[in-house]
Amino acid sequence: MNKNFTQAGKFNLLLIILTLLFSYSIKSQTTPSLVFKQPKLVAGTNGQIGATYKFSNVVPNINAYVKIENIVNGAVLVNIDDSTLGYYNAWQPTVGGPGTYGSSYIKWDIRFDSAGSNYVFKTLDASATDIDGDNVRVREFININGQSSYSIPTQVPTLLTVSKQKDTDNINGTDPSDSNLHAVGPIINRTGIDTLSQDVRLDFTFSNKSEFKIYTGSEVDNNGTTGAIATDRYHCIYFMHITGFLSLRPTTIQTFSASVDKSKVYLYWTAGELPSSAHFEVERSFDQNNFSTVALVLGPQSSLNNSDQYSYTDNVDQAINHNAIYYRLKEVDMNGSVSYSSIKVVQLSNMNVSSNTVLKIFPNPYMDKITVNYESGEAGKVEIKMFNSSGNVVKKIESVITSGNNNVQIQDLNSLAPGIYVVNVALNGQTINNQKIVKL
After folding, report:
1. Nearest in space to 81 (alpha carbons), one of 130, 116, 35, 137
2. Residues 6+ apart with CB under 8 A from 303
3. Residues 177 and 317 placed together within one structural domain of the fold
4. Which domain holds residue 369?
5. Considering the domain boundaries, does residue 6 fall inside one?
6. Which of 16, 143, 347, 404 is most buried per CB count within 10 Å?
């Protein structure tokens, strides 16, 4: 009896162990971590529509085939998988653009195969990291077609604008969905590639899929800025479940104030003693939701009564078409710990631009042209810009003026959409006036 009981017990124990191992195996397969490395061109011409790249053994015995399905508006494949930055196991294509205003992208078809047959993942997690910009006019974006869900890290406020858009690029009729998940990043650049940069990261999940579509591209904003732009954008898609968190701590900020005078906003704050490697980021928003960093402040200007004194002056000439600006401070430690101040708002209606120049714009409302008339007390170079309600420059005129009465006519405005515009006039680099006008 004892012997038989022992054999039965061993059998039952073995059955339990096998059941647990099987359950663990199934569970581990539901959220695998994929390794994308050493791709090989197996079909088509490198960088052209139809080019197909094989990533072998992204998990054991499963291959990924990444195919260029479409190239739009002058996008260029610079590198199918650049592992010099970021994460070696991630898929990191570098995609260039033409550098002109608007958007460009490459659309990819990603398919998984095992022994010549499509391989279906029950659950596959992925993250697009470092969806940022070039600090001038370029911002990256990613589109996903076929995801079952998505999420945005919430520990820090996101800088991404996420929406669903109608799928207008289903050229082969194989897209899993009739809509794309669209995430566009900020103009601000995040140094390096870091999954802990939660404000420029998008997480998404595929369920019961062997194939889906991803778009990697960029937009060039017509925001009135000048200077060279970085059109080659480094994308990072990591096929794994990311669980990293930032360490949040109480802020050392004691006081924080903001005031506006003419075309400048003056920020002042005091804080307790910071670690030697800590710094502040000044963040700005026009809607109190989407903030971007406008300055790094690495140390105090002075100290008084055991408090460090800080200040920053923000030139807001480019913000003339907004009624208010919101500011907050981000305090960052060497270990990645962050904290935020309260939000301060300044009303741009308080801007008191004064000059010895009298400005008139007529007709207002207008249909196809306007005349800018100004009585100036000095000669020089004048720059006239028209901004639409989104803050984009839609017209720009430069002229040399003399002291006295001057007229500049701006024509060919009939193509502009009806609505409110702001005309900004700057003399010798200094804004002298802003006026709202209405297009009929």
Report:
1. 35
2. 309
3. no
4. 358-439
5. no
6. 143
CB 336 within 8 A of CB 249: no
Tell whether 283 and 395 lie within a shared domain: no
355 bridge partner residues: none
| Residues paired with residue 157 on neighbouring β-strands, in sequence order | none
Dist CA 145 CA 160 (whole Å):
18
410 in helix, strand or coil?
strand
Backbone φ, ψ for residue 123 (5° rounding): -145, 135
Q: What is the pLDDT of residue 17?
A: 38
Whole-angstrom Cα distance, residue 159 to residue 180? 19
Q: Is the pTM of the predicted complex or chain greater than 0.70?
A: no
Cα separation, 424 vs 339, in Å, equals: 37
In this structure, are 259 and 230 located in the same domain? no
Q: What is the pLDDT of residues 341-389, one digit of tens each?
A: 888 888 765 444 444 456 788 888 888 889 888 777 778 888 888 877 6
DSSP state of 91: B
For β-strands 419-427 and 430-439, DSSP reports them as: antiparallel
Does residue 232 register a pLDDT over 90? yes
For the chain, how many residues are written? 440
Same domain, 70 and 163: yes
Using only the alpha carbons of the chain, give its radius of gyration: 28
